[in-house]
Amino acid sequence: EGWVCVRSGALTTAGHFRFKGIPWLHCAHRWPQGDLSCRMKVDDFEVGDMLGEGAFGTVCKATLRSTGKVYAMKVIEKVHAQRHGGLPQVKNEKDVLIRLDSHPNIVRLHSTFHDADHLYILLEYASGGELFGHIKRLGACHISCARWLTAELVNALEYMHSKGVLHRDLKPENILLDEDGHIKLVDFGSARQLGSEQQYTKFVGTAEYVSPEVLNDEEASEASDLWALGCIVFQMLSGTPPFRADSEYLTFKRIEELDFSFPDGFDGAAQDLVRELLQPEPVRRLGVGGEAGGYAMLKAHPFFVTGEPQLDFSLIHTLPPPPLVPP
């Protein structure tokens, strides 16, 4: 089923309208019964619990009445987003999700539509909740679970970077789990499309996962996402991010000084992986092309090739992950 672009209830080659200069593309798959998103409106859904809240709107659970299929619906108030300069960010997220439409560990965009007051982004629903909540509930993750989830995240990052996209806000809150326990990377509002003419803010992200070069007002790169990956691996296995402090200022200071330590019992191979990802020089981070060997070297790290269950990066999205349990 290919994408269908519609405007004003009819197929169009342009496939968009402009709201205050911002194109809003209606892209959707053909629905069962042959319906098209040109007829889609919020009343077609039973809108349920709120799943999350962002700067320009909320995300709710939404069930398509005609099929019973469940989605995550992001609802953006047009006036609020326009007043606070958020429309380019909203459009950027939509464009990024269209570019990243074919990876099992990245949330899928199903459709966008609008009414007089709101923009709607209809996304794949991940019923397993945020990885952050699971870490908090468990205290930390068992090594087998952390290894599997890290491998899926590596697959998602490799694909994303191959498509010229930087996430720039990787953290456990932006990693969801589906009903089978596989990860779904979400929240691309801060993402950057390499080669795009759009103006991007240099300093974005969440304090505990920001890389040293971004703190120094340098451009983010693939290496910046890999730094955040190192922080997430540390957090899955220890329960807290490596640079946590009582304030953002103190967190940034710890990042600049590379001030972190491993708790007792932290797996040796995992320690080495985290050290290789938390290199202060971006070009030396494991996974970066050139000196650091690219994703092939990252996937060959002992953290992934030792232990149980055995990992096959090309198949893990088709196999059942180990259960989420504490160490």
TrEMBL record:
<dbReference type="Pfam" id="PF00069">
    <property type="entry name" value="Pkinase"/>
</dbReference>
<keyword id="KW-0418">Kinase</keyword>
<dbReference type="InterPro" id="IPR011009">
    <property type="entry name" value="Kinase-like_dom_sf"/>
</dbReference>
<dbReference type="InterPro" id="IPR050236">
    <property type="entry name" value="Ser_Thr_kinase_AGC"/>
</dbReference>
<comment type="similarity">
    <text>Belongs to the protein kinase superfamily. AGC Ser/Thr protein kinase family. PDPK1 subfamily.</text>
</comment>
<feature type="binding site">
    <location>
        <position position="74"/>
    </location>
    <ligand>
        <name>ATP</name>
    </ligand>
</feature>
<dbReference type="InterPro" id="IPR008271">
    <property type="entry name" value="Ser/Thr_kinase_AS"/>
</dbReference>
<keyword id="KW-0547">Nucleotide-binding</keyword>
<feature type="domain" description="Protein kinase">
    <location>
        <begin position="45"/>
        <end position="304"/>
    </location>
</feature>
<dbReference type="InterPro" id="IPR000719">
    <property type="entry name" value="Prot_kinase_dom"/>
</dbReference>
<keyword id="KW-0723">Serine/threonine-protein kinase</keyword>
<keyword id="KW-0808">Transferase</keyword>
<keyword id="KW-0067">ATP-binding</keyword>
<dbReference type="GO" id="GO:0035556">
    <property type="term" value="P:intracellular signal transduction"/>
</dbReference>
<dbReference type="GO" id="GO:0004674">
    <property type="term" value="F:protein serine/threonine kinase activity"/>
</dbReference>
<dbReference type="GO" id="GO:0005524">
    <property type="term" value="F:ATP binding"/>
</dbReference>
<dbReference type="InterPro" id="IPR039046">
    <property type="entry name" value="PDPK1"/>
</dbReference>
<protein>
    <recommendedName>
        <fullName>non-specific serine/threonine protein kinase</fullName>
        <ecNumber>2.7.11.1</ecNumber>
    </recommendedName>
</protein>
<dbReference type="InterPro" id="IPR017441">
    <property type="entry name" value="Protein_kinase_ATP_BS"/>
</dbReference>
